[in-house]
Amino acid sequence: MVNPVHPNAPEDDPERPEEVTGKLESEKSETPEPGIYESRRGRSSKSDPDDESESGKKPKKKKMSFWKELPILIVVALVLVFLIQQFLARVYVIPSGSMEQTLHGCPTCQGDRILVEKVTYYFTDPAPGDVVVFKGPGPWVQNEFDSPRSDNAFVRFLEQLGSVIGLAPPDEKDFVKRVIATGGQTVRGDVDGKVYVNDKPLNEPYVYWEGDAPNGEQAFEPITVPPGALWVMGDNRNNSSDSRRQGGGGLNGVVPVSDVIGKAQVIVLPPGRWGGISDPNPQAMALAPAWQQGIPLGAGVLLAWPVLWTSRRVGSAVTRSFKGSDRK
């Protein structure tokens, strides 16, 4: 029995078996082997650092714990405080009453804490009226006694740290006074307590007399201040050891400009004493002749007339405008 032949049988197309065989082989070659596919998939599933950097994602870093950061923060803060105190500003304690009543201070009470800035004197010299803090020159400190310090090293460290941030008196012998005269000027004191610079009386609204009024003890002979030096005095005139007395007085009492640390600007503590420190120039405020003192009064009278005339004209114009609107 003969079976029917399919129209597309290989017998009718002798080249077909080779074509089918080629297609099968090409399909096999295009199908990846299981091992190769899995290895490629494994590599693609892993994170590539370059791909992450390109996509903007970075691996997360563990945050440092607070207790590990604390010592670093303390060290950085202390370094910043030290740099600020050395070059910009520093807080000082007023230990005595020599600057009453501008600055309060006494050995047994809570003295003012003042902010002394150093930047001003990088560009200019101290001027009359400035309240300055300075290192005591040799004649000023030769009879000074060292303040007692603890034998405990840790306590000494705390004292030094307190002096740096203004919570304790500094180790060095520093003073705070007001500049009265500068280099080249001649200063003298009269028996009535009046101070003269280049024979001109000073106007000193900041002066305070503790207890008795001037009794002649405040008088001192004329002194010409050397160039590069200052004549300084306390506001509490009869209770201040200043240029009049330090080193025996005279030229021994002057303070070199190079010893000035900075200018006292603000009272920072206690809170009830917050405020700026006045620094009027006593030489610029010296009393002028009588005819010059009358100039401001005369100028005020002359200027008052135009102002009064203008105000009347404006007032009358406004009144007329209101009356005109009412009639309408």
Automatic annotation (TrEMBL):
Which GO-annotated molecular functions does the record name?
serine-type endopeptidase activity; signal peptidase activity
Q: Which UniProt keywords apply?
A: Hydrolase, Membrane, Protease, Transmembrane, Transmembrane helix
GO CC term (a single one): plasma membrane
Topology relative to the lipid bilayer, per the entry, is: Single-pass type II membrane protein
Q: Say where the protein is mainly found.
A: membrane
Residue ranges of region Disordered? 1-60
Question: According to the UniProt entry, what is the EC number of this protein?
Answer: 3.4.21.89
Give every Peptidase S26 domain span.
69-268
Cell location: Cell membrane; Membrane
Q: Where are the transmembrane segments?
A: 70-93
User: In the UniProt entry, which residues are flagged as the active site?
Assistant: 98, 177
- Which reactions does this protein catalyse? Cleavage of hydrophobic, N-terminal signal or leader sequences from secreted and periplasmic proteins
Q: Basic and acidic residues bias: where?
A: 17-31, 38-48
Give the GO biological process terms: signal peptide processing
Q: Which NCBIfam families match?
A: sigpep_I_bact (TIGR02227)
Entry's family note: Belongs to the peptidase S26 family.
The name this protein carries in UniProt is Signal peptidase I
